[in-house]
Write a structure and sequence with these properties.
By secondary structure, this protein is an alpha/beta fold. About 40% of the residues lie in helices and about 25% in strands. β3 and β4 form a beta hairpin.
Length: about 290
């Protein structure tokens, strides 16, 4: 079945490697070895996001800490670098509250604008996403802004403009609100063993920039459709060892023996469908 719904992760995977996209989003293969232990980095981010939701919803430190612990506690002890721990997590939350008191934030948050999901028509397709928060800006200008939380143990090179993910959030929020969304506010936390660095950055988008994003997304979707039609999912071999590790599907690309590939799929992978808009995980709505 040809896909009709897309999100930024899916399109990023196609840009990374069409063959990767095929295995993950067409065959729905997910490696068995993506185990509980290997998931701890992502879950620390999930725990932090839940803590942020609680903080902006109620502003109660104890509830914020509990929201973090409820998610993270079962992963405690898994980080060999001892950066992602209960102690560090609670320390980061306390420092965050001290650095960014709610009454000094340059924006206001409404409860219905926390963890906002969208699935909106884009051309002949559906583009989906999940926004951390949509906030109303109150200093310097008036309007809505997407608030996006990010946590990392490595500062790296985060491009805030151009950024297809943020562009998509800004567009999606504007569709739900039926009102202009001026840009995005990145709320970044960089965690190190001996210190924590907090950075907030505002990035704005014009109508022309969002239009360019829309055209590029539709162009990439067109390339995905062409791969379907031609039944050709080219291997991007420069991505086989990207991110400092082997691609999850590299072993499947090392052989042309169909029987062997079939056996490898049975023994190493499970079928786990990627849902760009997981039902029940976020509020399904066409408006806010």
């Amino acid at each position: 079945m040809i896909l009709e719904a897309f999100d930024n992760s899916m399109l990023s995977n196609y840009k990374r490697c069409p063959k990767y996209f095929f295995h993950r989003h067409v065959e729905h293969l997910s490696p068995y070895n993506q185990s509980f232990e290997l998931d701890y980095k992502a879950q620390f981010g999930v725990a932090f996001h839940k803590a942020m939701d609680e903080w902006f919803l109620n502003g109660v430190p104890q509830k914020m800490d509990k929201a973090f612990l409820d998610i993270w506690i079962k992963f405690e002890g898994l980080d060999p670098k001892e950066i992602r721990t209960v102690k560090n997590g609670l320390d980061i939350l306390q420092k965050y509250r001290e650095k960014y008191p709610l009454d000094r934030d340059p924006f206001t948050v409404s409860p219905e604008h926390i963890e906002v999901g969208f699935a909106c028509e884009l051309g002949d397709y559906i583009y989906c996403g999940r926004i951390d928060k949509v906030v109303k800006w109150k200093f310097g200008f008036e309007g809505y802004v997407v608030l996006d939380h990010k946590t990392s143990a490595s500062k790296g090179f985060l491009n805030i403009k151009p950024n297809a993910s943020l562009d998509g959030y800004i567009w999606g929020a504007s569709q739900l609100l039926s009102s202009p969304v001026i840009g995005a506010y990145l709320d970044q936390v960089y965690m190190y063993k001996t210190k924590t660095e907090f950075i907030r950055e505002l990035t704005q988008r014009s109508a022309e920039e969002i239009h360019l994003w829309k055209m590029e997304v539709l162009d990439w979707i067109g390339k995905v459709r062409l791969s379907y039609q031609n039944e050709i999912w080219a291997r991007n071999t420069s991505s086989c060892s990207a991110f400092g590790r082997d691609c999850e599907y590299k072993i499947l690309c090392c052989s042309t023996d169909k029987v062997m590939i079939s056996e490898l799929k049975k023994s190493l992978y499970e079928v786990k469908e990627w849902l760009p808009y997981p039902p029940g995980s976020i509020t399904e709505t066409n408006h806010i």
